[in-house]
Amino acid sequence: MADEHLKTDAPESVNRFLDRFRIDERFPHILCPGCGIGTAMNTVVRALIEMGVNQNELCVVSGIGCSSRISGYLDCDTFHTLHGRALPAATGVKLARPDLKVVVFGGDGDMLAIGGNHFIHAARRNIDVTVFVLNNFTYGMTGGQYSPTTPTCARASTAPFGNVERDFDTCFMARATGAMFVARSTTFHVAHLKKMARLALSKRGFSVVEIISQCPTFFGRYQAMGDAVKMLEWIRDRSIDVSKVADPWVVQDKFVIGVLHDREEVPPYSQLYAELRRLRQIGADCKDLGIPSKVAGTP
Amino acid sequence: MTNSEVRMTNERPATRLLSGNEACAVGAVRAGVRFFAGYPITPSTEIAEYLARELPRIGGTFIQMEDEIASICCMNGATAAGVKAMTATSGPGFSLMQEGIGYSVMAELPCIIVNVMRGGPATGTPTRSSQADVMQARHGTHGDHPIVALCPWSVRECFDLTVEAVNVSERLRIPVLVLMDEIVGHMREAVQLPEHVGLWQSKLIKVPPGEYYHYDDSNNYDSRIASFGEGYRVHLTGLTHRKDGFPTDDPEIIRWNMDRLRNKVDDNRSWLWDVTYEDLGSETVIVCYGSAARSAMEAKRMFEQHTGRRVGILRLRMVWPFPMERMIALLRSARRVVVPEMNQGQLRRTIERSVSRHVPVISVQRYDGEMLTPEEIIDAL
């Protein structure tokens, strides 16, 4: 983890809080040298610290995989759930305790393959959580198999002759299924990532940040990309800011970074349900909330 | 079993006509369940329908998830956040929930899973009854762990055993299964529900956050654990963990963790075991559970009236943990044991181990979706 580097250029107060937020006694961590997950974790934690989020009012939920291990290194309520099931578990936490800030970490396999259905429905329901999808294009924990985001033609341990499947656009799906806020950043653009994280964390409702990250141990090795630095250069060279493209949703060969979707907030599920509870006391129901609906105006 | 009496003023002790599914849902509400996450499935759906109406009225939360996997994980999330939570399903959904049940066991999350059994395998017979998930209830998840499964035979017992399930789960901090079946779930009976239900209240946490261990040797059962948002900064994981909740692969701690899970039930089995019986001095004893016990009771009555000879009956209100030592003692004088089940004889082998090998254990099976008739059981007496 690049914490030495971060420590030298960060304000003293942030470092002190960073130390408190991270459980260093849990180190050495399980991540490989050169992995991008530590960078992503530290950057998101910095965003949380800058926003003044109270550790006792924060619940970090994750599934299974390399990026899901983040929950085990943070000093707050942390919930390391089953493979793919971080979002249903986060839904349960948020509905039971709407006052808690709920942040979800997951990898591309965890969030989009085994957890793809849950992702769709958590976005559709507008559960008030912020999801960080760490996309390193592979299943790292199990040794470099191809995932839903492995680019077409990329090699993997289970795609020795190249991947014939088409790869997923995480952000496109998040927007299509109803997310309030969707952004993409990378582990190369750390300052940019922190900005995206802050925007997502301050948005009410379902917000998503896809973080393009390097896995030199597996994805990089199978593509013969070289070490972590070479991979970060690849990410840098392949990234293009959203302001420089006409239509971010049709770019196939680059990572379009920046805020891709930021819609007008609608009340999240937990708030609507709380209002429904109040309405039940006076015998009214959901139609009295005045939400645009296909059955509005019917008895 | 319980150490506090809680009076609910919004429920009056009147005679009500309820189905087993409704009684289960009423019991859950009376026992303090305030969260339900589920997915529609026949024949359990009435439980979800009742709670969808009732929970928002009393400050609770109902959510219909995208599948049963999401349902149990959502329920686990709510439980971790400190709310009494439940889900209800049937065979196919129960299969999907198995990994999540394992998580509840591993993370020690108290919750209720109701399985209104129907015929299987696969989609099987959704609108017919069976008791074919008895072994799945015990061994459905991967890995070693004990499980508690209650098995009501009447509408009133659907209420009572759901309350009991909530209390056991709170006390031992484990998921508790309520194994109903289509007959019990859809049957309507006039019931009088009690004005008071006893609710288990665990001892409060006395240590400050700095000294708190989530899985301390002193809090394996009977004690409260911290929930999310209480300042204890809890870490929950499905990985084998240390007492502070963080994962480990130290063989000594793995053993400690596994023993801890086993001891939850082993240390408490004497009060957990729940059997009712009559006329156990008789030569022939019927061992039964769930709706098959209804046929067995009628078979006993008809047989005794016709022959003048007594037949013993032993009914398991709790099928898991199997009350082995208790059964050995109770069945000591039996010369024949008859086990009527609505499956291909799933519990028969387990019961066989509780009697001498000279005592024949006769399995009466019915697995065509229809209820066992008293005559079928009488044929074996």
Describe this structure in words.
The complex is a heterodimer of chains A (299) and B (381). With 299 residues, chain A is of the alpha/beta class. Chain A has helices at residues 3-9, 12-21, 37-50, 86-96, 108-113, 116-125, 170-176, 190-202, 216-222, 228-238, 269-281; strands at residues 58-62, 77-80, 101-107, 130-135, 138-139, 145-146, 181-186, 207-212, 239-241, 255-262. Chain A has two domains: 3-264, Thiamin diphosphate (ThDP)-binding fold, Pyr/PP domains (Rossmann fold, 3-Layer(aba) Sandwich); 267-299, no CATH class. In chain A, α2 packs across α3 (37-50). Chain A starts with a helix and ends in an 18-residue tail after the last helix. Chain B is of the alpha/beta class. Chain B is built from 13 helices and 18 strands. In chain B, α1 crosses α2 (45-54) and α3 packs parallel to α4 (91-107). Chain B starts with a strand and ends with a helix. Classes of the chains: A alpha/beta (299), B alpha/beta (381). β2 of chain A pairs parallel with β12 of chain B, so a sheet runs across the interface.
CATH homology superfamily of the largest domain in chain A:
Thiamin diphosphate (ThDP)-binding fold, Pyr/PP domains
Number of helices of chain A: 11
**What is the count of structural domains of chain B?**
2
Strand order of the biggest β-sheet of chain A: 2-1-3-4-8-7-10-9
Please name the CATH topology of the largest domain in chain A.
Rossmann fold
Overall pLDDT level of chain A: 92
SS strand fraction of chain B: 15-25%
Could you name the ranges of chain A where pLDDT drops below 50 across 5 or more consecutive residues? 1-8
Describe the global form of chain B. Answer: globular
Please describe the structure with a list of short key phrases separated by commas or semicolons.
heterodimer, A: 299 residues, alpha/beta, Rossmann fold, 2 domains, eight-stranded mixed β-sheet, two-stranded antiparallel sheet, B: 381 residues, five-stranded mixed β-sheet, 13 helices, 18 strands, 35% helix
